[in-house]
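Complex record, two chains
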Amino acid sequence: MKIRFWGVRGSIAVPGPNTIRYGGNTTCIEVRTDDDDLIILDGGTGIFQLGNHLLKRMPIDAHVFMTHTHWDHIQGLPMFTPIFIPGNKLNIYGAFDPVSGTGIEKVMDIQLQYSFFPVREAELKADIEYKTMRPGQTVAVNNAEVTGTLLNHPVINFGYRVEHNGKSMFFTGDHEPPYNFYEPGDPHYEEFESIIKDKEREIIAAMRGVDVLVADSSYTLTEYPSKKGYGHGTFDTSIRMAREAGVKTLICTHHEPTRSDDELEAVFAEVLSRHPHQQGDPEIILSREGLEYEF
Amino acid sequence: MQSLSPELSTKLEEAVERMPAFPKSVQMILEVSRNLSCTPKDIIEIIEKDPVMTIKVLKVINSAYFSLPYKINSLDRAVVYIGINTIKNLALSLATIGILPARNNAGFDMDEYLQHSLVAAGIARQLATRYAAGDIDPMDCYIAALLHDFGKVVFAQFMPEEFSKALKLSEKTGRPLHETEEEIIGVNHAMVGAMLAKRWNFSNELIDCVGNHHSMPVAENLMAECLHVADIIAKNITAPKTPKRTVSDPNWKAKRLGFTIDRVSALLGDLTPFVNEAKIFLQASYL
């Protein structure tokens, strides 16, 4: 299995001299199974360059799994060139949205409206199928399997586990480990603690033992208190999850858009200094646009 | 006793889909959502006082779209699964429908209904905490009591003429409302509540509780026991005009609680805080 990062930035694309080494595009990860099946995780602005790269290999049969539908994870989809070329096949997967009462088909409908985009969804030339998934559901992509798990974000967000040929990876999408918003002593406090523990166990089980965990590590410990509830994790929460789940490699992603390359390396070095490598620990690296990781 | 025809149950279910929430919670959810610094706790405290908002959230989380391995009765659990922002937006989308009118053609007092449900819910939670700690989640009992009479709102909104007749007959003869409903409508509010709860995939325990809250609770259903006792105690303090309600046998003792209802009520001590809490929520309703 091979994964390649086409976008690693959170919230908004930030091209420029300060982000040249790690990249300015928003989330998009290409996963190639050992059978060369194409699985794409999220369609942030990074998917545009992936699309251009794929032009050499037309027609394509892509399985695009959307962790959630916030802009930074869907914005590149209308500019994913293969959707305009007949003969290409796309399966787009994602969660049901209980607020609008719609499935994942809305990811294109919403973006391809007259006021916002010149081409209507009905005019796309590729064969596109939308498949709304339930939490815990496993979808077969030829010989690979992809399972969605409900994580915690201000919109429904699935973390996906991809498995094929004895190899596996898990991508969180955007995830803030749930926290107790009741004060100790509040009648709800204890009960809420136990619900959180249940949920944490479920999340760890979903990513248990994967070769690679790609996790939302937006904030540092110092930044987190003022960002609590925004729906993102910290480097420290990602390391904790990776250790508990016994993963082999942790790739920290969803870099803060305001963080320059130098700052990103500095905060990462600080995190590693507080978590010296112990036996059984995962290897911990930063995601970077263009990074290929084969295992 | 008749049951609802499939046509009528579908009609009622669809009607509830468009049913607005109570004025105070609509007003409060709009207020807090304008404030960026509102906390998840602020939002839950509003939703858990409104049967319609609570139903909307539980209906979503228990729906086939999420097909979770077990049914969820608690708003706190719903928060951990689908997130507070999704829940806030569900409540907000409900708020845009409008508000439940103060007056309905059935002459049913919505304020009194909500006050009774809130007081019963508070008492049921207290009973679960005191007598069934560790065996049952007090918040599940709270939700069961909050929703137990929801069938009355459905009647008032969607079958006002028949419900008005049942209300009048009960008032005139002193017979319990659920009996006069059965006589006039063919089903009672408990059955309608349970039918809806079933269609919304609520837990079997909750469906049984709502459906059987006028019967003596069967052994081993702690939630039903807490609800049954809380309902009677709440009725006696929130509706002083109606005849004092009791079980057919005044010496009946709730199994787990181990006392007669009057004794349980006395042991709970001063019940005015339950009533006051409900009244605070009701104030400024129907602006």
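Note: Residues 144 and 164 of chain A are 5 Å apart (CA to CA).
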